[in-house]
Amino acid sequence: MSEKQEQMENEETESAVNAEADTPAGNGGESMNDDNIAGLEKKLEEALSKAEQNLELALRAKAELENATRRHEQDLEKAHKYALDSFVKELLQVWDSLELGIQAGQADGADANKLVEGSELTLKLLSDVMDKFGVQQIDPDGSPFDPEEHQAMGMQPRDDVAPNTVVAVVQKGYKLNGRLVRPAMVMVSQST
User: Which ranges in 82-158 belong to alpha helices (H)?
Assistant: First the structure.
């Protein structure tokens, strides 16, 4: 029932009560009074019935909200728990490749060229996995020093490059989806 309908019913009830109060006493007034009381009792029963229906609807809505909240919390917990699932599955290939390389290196008569080739393939596999999950390598050799992405380990006097140029990369840096995870550790040129 809309607010307007409830307001109209309330006004009708008030009108009936006021009319009853205005009715003169006597036989005619008593029969009118009995009719008004019967009408008011009927309206009261209807109002109580409507109140019970509204209470039931409110309780159902509350239960649905609690169930939705609980489902959301469970989904969120599962998302946190298994967020790295696909990443780990991809990394297992790299792990397997590294174990095979170690076994091959420990075998009698291991061929160093084959081990290097296997290591290069494993590094390529790792690079592909990292690319797939948004990990970018920062290798700034020869580029201008950027304090946002590079950490200077030292300065080298150099005339062959412009000042504040990265002349050596001690350790490469990494970004995850554009956010810096580790800065590249570099040596930077300075004028002599």
Answer: 85-106, 112-132
Contact 138, 175 (CB under 8 A): yes
Cβ partners under 8 Å of residue 124, min gap 6: none
- Domain spans in the chain, listed from the N-terminal domain onward: 3-81, 84-133, 135-192
Residue 27 clears pLDDT 50, i.e. is over it:
no
The C-alpha atoms of residue 120 and residue 126 are separated, in whole angstroms, by 10
List C-alpha distances in Å: 79 to 9, 73, 92, 158, 176. 51, 10, 20, 52, 19
pLDDT digits (tens, 9 = 90+) for 141-150: 999 999 999 9
User: 135-192: what fold?
Assistant: Nucleotide Exchange Factor Grpe; Chain A, domain 2 (2.30.22)
Checking if the pLDDT of 23 tops 60, the result is: no
The structure tokens 């599962």 sit at 78
Q: What is the mean pLDDT of residues 171-180?
A: 96
Sheet of strand 166-171, all strands in order from the earlier edge strand to the far edge: 150-157, 184-190, 166-171
- Residue written as token pair 């809505």: 61
